[in-house]
Amino acid sequence: xxxxxxxxxxxxxxxxxxxxxxxxxxxxxxxxxxxxxxxxxxxxxxxxxxxxxxxxxxxxxxxxxxxxxxxxxxxxxxxxxxxxx
Length: 85
Fold this sequence. Notes:
Elements: H1 2-9, H2 15-34, H3 39-43, H4 46-49, H5 54-62, H6 64-70, H7 72-83
Helix pairs in contact: 2-5, 2-6
């Protein structure tokens, strides 16, 4: 009953879960890129693949902090590659 009462108290609480997950994944992508890894390699990393669908990985590339950190040209190149899969 605890879960049900929490749902009635905040019926939209499930909406925040995805954004928090995406924030963690975006931070991981930025951190790994800062360490010198190519973006395509990071997105194929088991840490990302096990935690995000292809759609979620695409949304990570839309996050402004990721685009700023990695560079728009690199993000566009990887987006094009993801479309070929």
